[in-house]
Amino acid sequence: MAYTLDAIIAARPLLDRHRQRYASVRVAPLQHGLGLIPLAGSLPGEIAATGTDAASATMGGSWDWTPEFAAWFNRNGCKGAELPPFCNLSPLLVAWIEHLSHDGAVAYVEVECWGGPCSQVAAIWRDGGLVEGPVVDEFGPDVPPSVLGGAVNHALRWMGIVADCNLDEFEAVGLGTYRFTGDWLDHDERKPLGRVQ
């Protein structure tokens, strides 16, 4: 079964306070007081259109990476993506995440599963800087998830989500509700969060 997710996750009130930054921002509710901004539809293009100068002026400062993120980036180099191991993370998106993180912990996650093999990448920012990650986990039918139980679960645990014996963190917050990032754009808050059918 295919599954993709490219999103910002944080406390829903934090995301609601900053939703006016871009006209196409949609905040979808998750369980445990979290919210999700799906990076789909026109939002990625709107972020890219702001340009470096607009990011610096609007955010009230430089969009320079934290020293930790810059060191990680320099070690890993760019293998076709702007900020590997992420496929879709850009410096402008990092600038916005850093800005959001002055109000609390913010996770950026990417997940891709295509009929077996899965790849998850996550990082967490707080107080304007990268505090955890990037964490990478790849697994599939013949390769179990790492001891972290997946990069997204690791990020959610860092944000205080505790799984119970029946659900991991991913399922506990409702990330299994939709199979594709774009599906979150039209989420109806009356729809219960749960597993993809």
Task: Write up this protein.
- The chain has one domain.
- A six-stranded antiparallel beta sheet has the order 2-3-1-4-5-6, with helices on both faces.
- The chain is α+β, with helices and mostly antiparallel strands.
- 28% of the residues lie in helices and 22% in strands.
- The radius of gyration is 16 Å and the shape is globular.
- It is built from six helices and six strands, in the order E-H-E-E-H-H-H-E-E-E-H-H.
- The model is unreliable at 52-65 and 72-81 (pLDDT under 50).
- Helix 2 (43-59) packs across helix 4.
- The chain has helices spanning 12-17, 43-59, 67-76, 91-100, 151-158, 169-173, and strands at residues 3-11, 28-29, 34-38, 106-113, 118-126, 129-139.
